[in-house]
Design brief:
By secondary structure, the protein is of the alpha+beta class. It has one domain. It has three helices and five strands. A three-stranded antiparallel beta sheet has the order 1-2-3, with no helix packed on it. The protein has a two-stranded antiparallel sheet with strand order 4-5. The longest helix has 21 residues. The protein is elongated and about 70 Å long. InterPro entries: DUF6152 (IPR046150). Keywords: Signal.
């Protein structure tokens, strides 16, 4: 194998490694403030690299304080109150597209 082939292969490998790492980064997401959407599933697109779900959310006033919503004791033990305190309802209706990504070998998360 000559040096030119080796260098070409290394450049191609580095290109794909960088694009994979950049594609799956969490830097654009605020994981401390989950967003919960309630609406009608309008479309589902099964395509690579991730499926998409389009949800139509009606224009309704959001619930004032999710912390006071009754929850089962099992969820209380897991810290659901902290999650609900950070949760924000959508501020306006419209169409939202969720890009789903695999979290591990079997589960799919938004």
């Amino acid at each position: 194998m000559n040096l030119r082939s080796l260098m070409s292969g290394a450049v191609v490998a580095l290109y794909f490694a960088a694009s994979v790492q950049a594609h799956h980064g969490w830097g654009a997401y605020d994981t401390d403030r989950p967003l919960y959407l309630e609406g009608t599933v309008a479309e589902i697109h099964w395509r690579n690299p991730h499926p998409e779900v389009v949800i139509e959310v009606p224009v309704t006033p959001p619930r004032a304080n999710l912390v006071h919503v009754p929850v089962p004791p099992e969820l209380e033990k897991l810290g659901i109150r902290e999650v609900l305190a950070k949760a924000r309802a959508p501020e306006r209706g419209g169409r939202y597209t969720l890009d789903l990504a695999r979290l591990d070998g079997w589960r799919v998360g938004a």
